[in-house]
Amino acid sequence: MEVTAASPEQLADLAALEAGAAETMPAPEVAAVPAVDPAESWAMLPAMVGSILCMAMPELKAVYTPDACNAWGAAMVPVADEQGWNADEFLGPKMGLLVASAPFVLGTVFAIKARKAAALPDKQKGNEPGALVADPGAGQKTVIIGAPAVE
What we know:
Layout: H1 8-24, H2 38-56, H3 66-83, H4 87-119
Helix pairs in contact: 2-3, 2-4
């Protein structure tokens, strides 16, 4: 196969075809990359931790509010910039998986505790570790150091 140089007429025809194609074909659109606010990215950290803690202690919902998390995120930005930290790298997919898994784990733990508590005889209920004791002094002896022994 022999390659020959294009004639001036062929080059003019090619330029006309390219110009016509450019007019009829829309230019590819460049997708706009949404601007990510670093404060919002960092606010995800206390929001995720709070969502996990609130499952165990619902009263913490008043602490981990969106406004409080956003304020923390805004305060974190200068520290992260100073340290060279990136919220996307720090939080990443592993943290997302942890937060997504927490309801399963905590729900199972609470269900097991509730089942164990329901299985206890009535006389033992309320005496689990950490439970309040109705009469803390019942069955206790008072010992006074240096007092004569009483039998």
